[in-house]
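Title: Prediction job returns without error message
Component: structure pipeline
Severity: low
Priority: P3
Assignee: unassigned

Description:
Job completed but the reporter wants confirmation the result is attached to the right record. Sequence as submitted:
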Amino acid sequence: MIKQIKPLFFFFSVLLLIWLPSVHAEPAKFCRSSTSQTASAAIATSPGYLHGIVVITDGTNSVTVDIYDNASAASGTKLIPQWIVTTSSSNRAQSYSIDPPIKFSNGIYVVVTTSGTVTYMVYYFEGL
């Protein structure tokens, strides 16, 4: 009888060791991107982590980028120092990557200033 129980006990022990860590594991946190933006805008409205930004210029005019920890206005704590995106006809896209990501408490508000046109996408995780 004991010989029959040992393999069964072993099987359930292994199954338990495999299953238990998944019960307590934190859900996966995936980075998401904003939709393409062409002007200053609120990107996120709750806490999270900023991973970076990609800016595409018009090929002629530089762009100044400021990113604030704010859900609706260009004020509060700056998440990165002011970034001036230079441009040329052969180098229109530039990125600002943040590793490890920067925590924000209120949201993300991006201000872009240029005399030309600009498109940008922000990469972030919303939630703590």
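Comment from assignee: result matches the submitted record. The longest strand covers residues 93-104.
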